């Protein structure tokens, strides 16, 4: 048929067919590797349950929210049963929740099992952080920074493992295998050494005991007194497990909770939208996935180094950790401007390196600063309340970013918004803690200038059997009577 056409037409058609073959070869080579695990999982769930992207996105959102919102329940279990039992229960819940997800028939059942899995993650994660503060005192910074390296290892290896499982066994088989892997958290909890409980109870615990005794005494005094007693017990319960009293009486904890919660709103979103942002600007999927691998490798390399540096003797018993943390948050916020300004591979590579460095230092000090702010007997409840506040911002952060993308059609505005959010949170932490430290220094200087009544020289009045020494000013209030010589 081509021979019947003119020579010029034949050359044009052959050239177009040749270009089409070259384009198909390039496309096949470009898409040789599988897409990221999150895209594969969402695609499989949408195909299985015939749901939209919005409905499927609630699965990781519910799991992440339960990871942080279960803090008060975790605090109660830690105080009642200890860290070891709580971690084992968390491993059992997360393993069973992930395994039962493989048997789900509707997306609603996936929502329920995701909540159970997230609660198991919470019961395994928060006691592990708490017990580190009890195990280490002098080398607490080094221990916390070194233990956070596991987060970086998981960020790098788990997506690769999940990709292999999804390609070989599908999403149901992958969930079943991951459920068996999560049961190993029970083994990790079993090897934790129990903490010896002290003889003294916390003040809130004593208040709760008093209210319980009061309730027994007022059983016959009418409904009004019983309701009052129940309210008092409920308020004491909230103070004990929700750390609401720390928000009132501890200004450092209040400032830290507000700053970290506001920081979380813009700190997680770049990790979610980095790969879509790169592919939106015609970057190959291999290179976009390579950026996340570089981010994980930077975390693996920097967190142990940060543990060694921050664990040096010059940093021990130092109150400057909060400023180092705020400085890392500041750099992290400013780095998002690089990503928003350019979408080239070189610019994004520089971005993930700076983002990973600041993320590693900030993640190494996140819980160390909290341990310095509150007492260790209140740390579980303080951590639970902080995580519960973070769960709200983690839950609304990605949807707000998605609304911004839908409204503007540009991913760069998301990174600029994250930059403003994280940058303002770091400035808030720096300014507020500097103000509190300056105020404490002024109070110390005033107390050193004003002599205390303890250091005033007392007048000694001897007993009748001894000589009598009278002062010029008569008998003083600070007089001391000596009854034996």
Any overview of this molecule?
The protein has a two-stranded parallel ribbon with strand order 1-2. The chain has helices at 7-30, 37-49, 53-69, 71-81, 83-101, 107-135, 140-147, 149-182, 184-190, 203-217, 223-241, 244-249, 251-267, 269-280, 285-310, 321-341, 345-373, 379-408, 412-449, and strands spanning 460-462, 480-482. It is built from 19 helices and two strands. It is 77% helix and 1% strand. The chain is globular, with a radius of gyration of 31 Å. The chain has 485 residues and is mainly alpha-helical. The longest helix has 38 residues, at 412-449.
Sum this structure up briefly.
The chain is mainly α and 485 residues long. It contains 19 helices and two strands. The protein has helices spanning 7-30, 37-49, 53-69, 71-81, 83-101, 107-135, 140-147, 149-182, 184-190, 203-217, 223-241, 244-249, 251-267, 269-280, 285-310, 321-341, 345-373, 379-408, 412-449; strands spanning 460-462, 480-482.
Distance between the termini: 132 Å
Q: Give the strand line-up of the largest sheet.
A: 1-2
- Supply the number of helical segments: 19
Task: Quickly give the structural class.
Answer: mainly alpha
Content of β-strand: under 5%
What's the gyration radius in Å? 31 Å
Count every beta strand, where a strand is a DSSP E run of 2 or more residues: 2
* Order of helix and strand elements from N to C terminus: HHHHHHHHHHHHHHHHHHHEE
The low-confidence runs, each spanning 5 or more residues with pLDDT under 50, are 1-6, 8-34, 198-216, 459-485
Share of residues in helices: over 70%
pLDDT average, as an integer? 76
User: Which geometry do the CA atoms define?
Assistant: globular
Biggest beta sheet summary: 2 strands, parallel
């Amino acid at each position: 048929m081509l021979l019947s056409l003119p020579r010029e037409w034949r050359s044009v058609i052959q050239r177009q067919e040749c270009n089409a073959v070259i384009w198909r070869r390039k496309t096949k080579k470009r898409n040789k590797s599988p897409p990221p695990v999150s895209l594969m999982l969402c695609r499989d769930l949408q195909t299985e349950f015939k749901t939209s992207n919005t409905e499927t996105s609630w699965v990781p959102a519910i799991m992440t929210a339960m990871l942080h919102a279960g803090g008060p329940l975790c605090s109660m279990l830690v105080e009642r049963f200890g860290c070891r039992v709580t971690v084992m229960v968390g491993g059992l819940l997360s393993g069973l929740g992930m395994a039962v997800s493989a048997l789900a028939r509707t997306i609603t059942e996936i929502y329920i099992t995701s909540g159970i899995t997230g609660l198991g993650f919470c019961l395994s994660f928060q006691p592990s952080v708490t017990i580190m503060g009890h195990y280490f005192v002098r080398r607490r910074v080094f221990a916390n920074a070194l233990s956070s390296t596991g987060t970086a290892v998981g960020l790098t290896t788990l997506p690769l493992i999940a990709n292999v499982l999804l390609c070989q066994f599908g999403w149901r088989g992958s969930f079943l295998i991951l459920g068996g892997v999560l049961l190993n958290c029970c083994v990790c909890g079993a090897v934790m050494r129990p903490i010896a409980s002290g003889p003294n109870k916390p003040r809130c615990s004593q208040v709760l005991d008093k209210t319980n005794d009061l309730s027994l005494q007022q059983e016959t005094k009418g409904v009004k007194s019983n309701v009052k007693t129940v309210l008092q017990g409920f308020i004491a319960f909230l103070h004990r497990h929700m750390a609401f009293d720390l928000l009132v009486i501890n200004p450092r904890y209040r400032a830290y909770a507000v700053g970290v919660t506001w920081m979380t709103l813009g700190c997680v979103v770049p990790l979610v939208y980095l790969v879509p942002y790169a592919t939106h600007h015609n970057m190959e999927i291999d290179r976009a996935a390579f950026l996340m691998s570089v981010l994980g490798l930077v975390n693996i390399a920097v967190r142990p180094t940060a543990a060694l540096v921050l664990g040096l003797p010059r940093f021990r018993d130092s109150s400057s950790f909060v400023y180092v943390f705020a400085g890392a948050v500041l750099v992290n916020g400013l780095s998002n401007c690089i990503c928003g300004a350019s979408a080239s591979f070189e610019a994004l590579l520089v971005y993930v390196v700076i983002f990973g460095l600041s993320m590693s230092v900030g993640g190494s000090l996140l819980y160390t600063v909290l341990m310095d702010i509150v007492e260790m007997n209140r740390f579980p409840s303080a951590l639970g309340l902080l995580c519960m506040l973070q769960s709200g911002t983690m839950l609304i952060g990605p949807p707000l970013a998605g609304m911004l993308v839908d409204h503007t059609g540009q991913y760069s505005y998301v990174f600029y918004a994250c930059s403003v959010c994280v940058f303002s949170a770091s400035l808030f932490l720096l300014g507020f803690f500097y103000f509190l430290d300056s105020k404490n220094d002024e109070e110390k200087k005033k107390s050193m200038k004003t002599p205390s009544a303890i250091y005033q020289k007392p007048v000694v009045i001897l007993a009748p059997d001894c000589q009598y020494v009278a002062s010029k000013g008569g008998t003083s209030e600070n007089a001391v009577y000596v009854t034996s010589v």
